[in-house]
Amino acid sequence: MSERMGKALLGLIGSRPESKATARPSLSLAAQAAQAAAADAAKKAAMAAGAFALPPGPLGWLTIVPEMAAVWRIQSQLVADIAALYGRTAELGQAQMLYCLFRHTAAQAVRDLAVRVGERMLVRPATTALMQRVVGAVGMQLSQKVLSKSVSRWVPMVGAAAVSAYAYYDTQQVAKAAIEMFEREQIIENPG
After folding, report:
1. Which end of the chain is more exposed for a tag (fewer CB within 10 A), N or C?
2. Could you give the angle at which helices 2-13 and 128-152 cross, rounded to 10 degrees?
3. Model's pTM, two decimal places?
4. d(Cα 96, Cα 175) in Å, to the nearest integer?
């Protein structure tokens, strides 16, 4: 399961979503637009997760990975949009994407990607070895999450509401990480 999750993650972060958002002239305007984008994305993620969580029992189990992938796509688009709002699209790489998507759920796994140093973010380059290690660790965390989500499939309406609420919260946390990252100057660490 964790290997399957890892492959899904690599596919997700392998290509950066294109953003239609345009850079705002000030940090405060960018922050306002980012909050609005976060609210919109959180609603979309909640709706998608809730819809996927409706089928009961064994049929519902088949919807767990597609549900997570749909929410990740919404969240990765949100990260790309926030980067664009701050005028930082060129700085959005795999390491930044993984950090923003999973900082709150797999903090131990992504701690090697970026760290806040005062008013700056120190970002390690996304080498193949580092990405494999981080994706493997995140995959393990997500596999445990899948097991907990499988319980929600036995109580369809209540489970769907809980999954929907968590997707909303999760998307807000992704936005918070992205805003924090793109409001600050990023220093890309030299691999040599």
Report:
1. C
2. 120
3. 0.81
4. 12
